[in-house]
């Protein structure tokens, strides 16, 4: 455990990841309620939020959003987010 970090600071490191997970859970909930297009768009938005947070928050405060280097994380989060949203918006049929 990191004794040099106060309790509030240790908890605040995980807030960005919690925010992204919360948005992702809303997306999964929408998909499970048969709103698959809206749900996948929300999942893509969660990845775009992760990219934005990774770009703004310093490495020490990024918590579980920091997996690789900052540039690689931003490019992958944003790239996957855009791809998921664009695929969800271009697929026709099924349940709308």
From TrEMBL:
Top-level taxon: Bacteria
InterPro entries, alphabetized: DUF3017 (IPR021385)
Transmembrane residue ranges: 12-33, 40-57, 77-95
Pfam family of the protein (one): DUF3017
Alphabetically ordered keywords of this record: Membrane, Transmembrane, Transmembrane helix
Protein name, as recorded: DUF3017 domain-containing protein
Species annotation: Saccharopolyspora ipomoeae
């Amino acid at each position: 455990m990191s004794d040099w970090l106060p309790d509030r600071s240790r908890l605040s490191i995980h807030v960005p990841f919690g925010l992204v997970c919360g948005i992702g859970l809303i997306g999964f909930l929408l998909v499970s309620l048969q709103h698959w297009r809206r749900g996948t768009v929300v999942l893509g938005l969660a990845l775009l939020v992760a990219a934005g947070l990774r770009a703004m928050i310093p490495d020490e405060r990024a918590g579980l959003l920091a997996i690789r280097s900052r540039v690689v994380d931003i490019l992958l989060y944003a790239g996957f987010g855009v791809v998921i949203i664009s695929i969800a918006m271009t697929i026709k049929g099924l349940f709308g």
